[in-house]
Amino acid sequence: MRKIAVLTSGGDSPGMNVAIRAVVREGIRLGCEVFGVYGGYEGLIEGRIKRLSERDVGGIIHRGGTMLQTSRSERFRTEEGRARAVRQLQASGIESVVVIGGNGSFEGAKKLEAEGVATVCIPGTIDNDMPGTEMTLGFDTAVNTVVEAADRIRDTSFSHDRIGLIEVMGRNSGSIALWAGVACGAEYVIVPEIEFRIEDLIRKLQASIRDGKRHSIILSAEGVGSGADIASRIKAMAGYDVRTTVLGHLQRGGSPTAADRVLGSRWGVEAVHLLTRGERGRLLGIVSNKIVAHRYDDPIRQENHNDVSLATILQNLSI
Amino acid sequence: MRKIAVLTSGGDSPGMNVAIRAVVREGIRLGCEVFGVYGGYEGLIEGRIKRLSERDVGGIIHRGGTMLQTSRSERFRTEEGRARAVRQLQASGIESVVVIGGNGSFEGAKKLEAEGVATVCIPGTIDNDMPGTEMTLGFDTAVNTVVEAADRIRDTSFSHDRIGLIEVMGRNSGSIALWAGVACGAEYVIVPEIEFRIEDLIRKLQASIRDGKRHSIILSAEGVGSGADIASRIKAMAGYDVRTTVLGHLQRGGSPTAADRVLGSRWGVEAVHLLTRGERGRLLGIVSNKIVAHRYDDPIRQENHNDVSLATILQNLSI
Amino acid sequence: MRKIAVLTSGGDSPGMNVAIRAVVREGIRLGCEVFGVYGGYEGLIEGRIKRLSERDVGGIIHRGGTMLQTSRSERFRTEEGRARAVRQLQASGIESVVVIGGNGSFEGAKKLEAEGVATVCIPGTIDNDMPGTEMTLGFDTAVNTVVEAADRIRDTSFSHDRIGLIEVMGRNSGSIALWAGVACGAEYVIVPEIEFRIEDLIRKLQASIRDGKRHSIILSAEGVGSGADIASRIKAMAGYDVRTTVLGHLQRGGSPTAADRVLGSRWGVEAVHLLTRGERGRLLGIVSNKIVAHRYDDPIRQENHNDVSLATILQNLSI
Amino acid sequence: MRKIAVLTSGGDSPGMNVAIRAVVREGIRLGCEVFGVYGGYEGLIEGRIKRLSERDVGGIIHRGGTMLQTSRSERFRTEEGRARAVRQLQASGIESVVVIGGNGSFEGAKKLEAEGVATVCIPGTIDNDMPGTEMTLGFDTAVNTVVEAADRIRDTSFSHDRIGLIEVMGRNSGSIALWAGVACGAEYVIVPEIEFRIEDLIRKLQASIRDGKRHSIILSAEGVGSGADIASRIKAMAGYDVRTTVLGHLQRGGSPTAADRVLGSRWGVEAVHLLTRGERGRLLGIVSNKIVAHRYDDPIRQENHNDVSLATILQNLSI
Fold first, then answer.
1. What is the pLDDT of residue D308?
2. What are the catalytic residues (chains A, B, C, D) (predicted)?
3. Based on the domain organization, do D240 and D96 belong to the same domain?
4. Is residue B208, in this structure, part of any structural domain at all?
């Protein structure tokens, strides 16, 4: 009988619990023993490993966060740390691990694979910035969370003829800002992928105001700089009063959307199928609406092509 | 200058307003005059046509339903009715129409095209049962609405160790039931695509109960028969107390999700682009995450392949 | 050291978990041992009693339903059943019980008190039909759930110029229908407290239609009869197409609102304070925004006076 | 026939639209002409006054913000500004004004009354800091918005064993923080009404951690100082990593809860009844669950007594 472990690593994202549930239940159904590693790679090093039953993952499908908790582990970046992690797995007789997380966690999975542990990686991050997939687990939920917040802020921006600036997550990726921007009808979006000239933004705001529309919503990705700073610059240059909201970790929590729950279930099942068939060292993705499994050593391209074209749509549809 | 009209027809779906907004604003941006037809094909016959400005579609992106209202028109099925509809368009100098609706509306668009009016059809229905697209406009919102309802019903089913049956929409298509079923961790789903044997359902319930789990959620698509009837049969055959909820038109309303808002915006923009380029008689779709435009006379295949495979996932992951 | 048990009984309501958490934590803080009875009075008879720690009630404040589960117990109506229940308590050394539930549960608490067990009863029901309190635990959440559903149904009713009828809970009490009706701007509400003449309803609908408003929302409390029947009668008498939604147990679930969470916390704390002070046989309530404790044998009046006056407001504000 | 105007002033709050709808419809029903003043006192000075029909306030009951928009007017603080405002009313033949807003707006209403205009003031603010009422319009919605945000942040705080600090609105009043704190099970709350010693907070966090609970939620009212500063001080003194979220204007928007919709409807109706009966210079409130009308020159006490006692409950129930 095969022993499979599952761990979540890096920033948590809504839908991780769904994937854990799928790995555990599909694993057990196919005759495996399934173990949960608590606290990500750090927990692996410390041997926080517990066998899970089908019941242990009951009642979690609709909950945000990860029941296994997560961490960012400095020790796992060291050879010694990784050696210890591998020994912990060996001590429990575990040969394979499903890693759920973002780019950092994927790097960790590759290293674990290099140490001889069979791994499959599920792209779990709200940032939608991983290669080989059009969508990451948690992205759809995060975008909906931002849109809901923007809908509320628009109410009060309209009441006061005021500009609302919302700083959203995204260090290198403007995906959340772009999708949420189109979805909430934002007047402007500031993202790492597109050069930002504050003059353009101010020109757009001035045009709106000339046109009789005095309230606007601006979305800015954190990677471009602090929302509060951008607000001050607008104030200094054009005299407009801009109210800033920093959504922060709000975007990471919340009950996953249906799309994230379906995606997490499909990926969790697929991860187990791959491992039980002996296919390892695979990064999962969804491309052209099909589940795909990339080899770690293949060149894996970025697949979230649509994003920048959304900027044009947003620009053209907001007035 | 080109004159474009937009109408919504058949059952309404969340996201129709988003598509209307996109057609109007992109149309005007490209130098067209855009007209709204009120009340679907029936309104077209009656000449309920009004020119729309960019402002007229402000503040609707987040609202369910359709600002243009909709109808099911008997008269439009007659030659006389259609002739009158065409005359109404000619009287306003309108040469092209964007139709947003389901399969019935698509049939109407084909007939309008046959009468010489340039048309593009946007698949707007919660049922996800149209050819040529992996997703219809409103489907994602409807699934999330069902999942939210199911999450609530699970609370009380657990409290009472009871079986909750939720009847959802879907005459010929089990898409809503299947997606929502996986997403809410339903124990069983009854859909038109899969032969239903009540003995299998009862066996599954009995196995759960033997296993110590006494509450369950069953989703059934309306096309398979009334939820209340199925509940009675379960009661008669196995003695279990089943509480039925009929979500009904609840599933049609509500603020559209981010995914539906982005999809509706992209399709609305594309419809205008096609018509201004002289490409007509096109059914829009999203396939492999790309916007596609099928010719009405091409064979258009069903693209929502994943659905039935979801039934297996659901079956295997619920215990 | 005092031993207190807590049980939930009858139909579950959102906020029961909050009250359980408050009883357990406040009890332990004051030096008591606190026990959970699983499965209501039936569970009490069967001795399903477990000691609870502060941690056991962690992570439940936001969850619908009741972690202790509930039941309607026939056996507890018999002397023998009750005698057995009392023996179970004695066997664990428990002298006092906090009962959370509706009118039936309150009757049970009185009987338990008569058998010599110290009891306090917390009014937990969505129906808002208990004496001695302006508000019951779960009512605010249920009303918000209905309003959210009605907001969605209004979207689609408007799109189709159609009448939507929503059947809501309330056997003898129209509280949910009246509050939700005012809050969603319903055009008509049918409740047990007010004589219903279908002619009045039809006259109102006709007036609206003459006035150019062709969509309406009707709320009807289940106690007045089946929503589907009322819809058929409207159809038969006036020819209007009415779509019916039966919200059913949907109204019982869902994360409790802030108001229900605050109320449940206050009542849970108060119940423990009373029992530790030796004050027993008390039904809690909230009157004039103050927590009150009625003696079981005092005459306890109905306090939800406002309800019927809401009907006038609803009538006057809808057009 | 009487002419009544309605205006919203100061910060907007969810439920203002409900009150506007009630004033307009009840006013017209009783034979008055009702006018909307756009843009608060500033708009009044500028004569932005428009007659409203019953239809003009249709479809707004569920929308956040205020359709009449609002402002903070410097000019209205001057005698000249007020004189001009009064002339604008006289020019339209309007003798009475319903003012919906917070303490600043109430001051304005008193001044208008002193100038001979009949006024009634509806307490519309999310802050719950007005005299003569247990609850202000918008407070219930704002608290629920904060609780929803806190529920999401708890998900991710748990996943990371981290402390989440949420800065909420409230310059002089901790009502939002206290109610939301009890409702979300916050571990600590920092409010203007209670002296804050950071040592106490750190002691509480240390006790939790010793006890094995490593994630916590802290709510702080903006009046006590910036959330980011408090987070830095915790980091400096105890080394804990605290993530801050600033909810900002998010708290002002959103569809009003059922309770706010009922309250706004009742107050709007009452305001019209008072004015048509010739009772003027009245501040509305809800005390002991009854609508009350205080004379401006009476001493009006603060009625939100419960707040501080909530701090004790919060402290005792969180572990």
1. 76
2. 127
3. no
4. yes
Same domain, A244 and A287: no
Catalytic site residue from C12, C56, C127, C307: C127
Q: Which of B223, B252, B281 is a domain's end point? A: B252
Helix (H) or strand (E) holding A164: strand A163-168
- CA proximity to B161, closest of B102, B213, B103: B213
Residue C67 in contact with partner chain D when CB distance is under 8 A: no
CB of A310 within 8 Å of a chain B CB? The answer is: yes
Which of A12, A56, A127, A297 is labelled catalytic?
A127
- pLDDT tens string, chain C, 319 residues long: the values are 599 999 999 999 999 999 999 999 999 999 999 999 999 999 999 999 999 999 999 999 999 999 999 998 999 999 999 999 999 999 999 999 999 999 999 999 999 999 999 999 999 999 999 999 999 999 999 999 999 999 999 999 999 999 999 999 998 899 999 999 999 999 999 999 999 999 999 999 999 889 888 899 999 999 999 999 999 999 999 999 899 999 999 999 999 999 999 999 999 999 999 999 999 999 999 998 899 999 999 989 888 766 778 999 999 998 7
* CATH code of C126's domain: 3.40.50.450
Are B130 and B150 part of one and the same domain? no
Last residue of a domain, one of B236, B252, B268: B252
Is residue B11 annotated as involved in ligand binding?
yes
Q: Was B294 annotated as part of a binding site?
A: no
Judge whether C169 lies within some domain. yes
Q: Is C93 annotated as a binding residue?
A: no
Judgement on whether residues D109 and D49 belong to the same structural domain of the protein: yes
Which chains have 3+ CB pairs within 8 A of C? B, D
Same domain, C173 and C207: yes
Specify the number of domains making up chain C. Answer: 2
Are B239 and B290 in a shared domain? no
Clarify whether residues B124 and B152 are in a common domain.
no
> Does the CB of A54 have a partner CB in chain D at under 8 Å?
no
pLDDT greater than 70 at residue D46: yes
D258/C151 CB distance under 8 A: no
Decide if B168 is inside a domain.
Answer: yes
Minimum-distance CB partner of C262 among D61, D134, D182: D182
Residue from the list C55, C147, C317 with its beta carbon closest to the beta carbon of D265: C317
Query: What is the distance in angstroms between the Cα of B278 and the nearest Cα belonging to chain C?
Result: 31
- The residue among D137 and A211 whose pLDDT is bigger is D137
Asked whether residue A42 falls in the same domain as residue A113, the answer is: yes
pLDDT level of residue B49 (50, 70, 90 thresholds): very high
Tokens in use for D67? 């359709």
Q: Is residue C313 part of a domain?
A: no
Q: Say yes or no to pLDDT of A101 above 90.
A: yes
B149: domain range? 140-252
Here the CATH number for the domain that contains residue D202 is 3.40.50.460
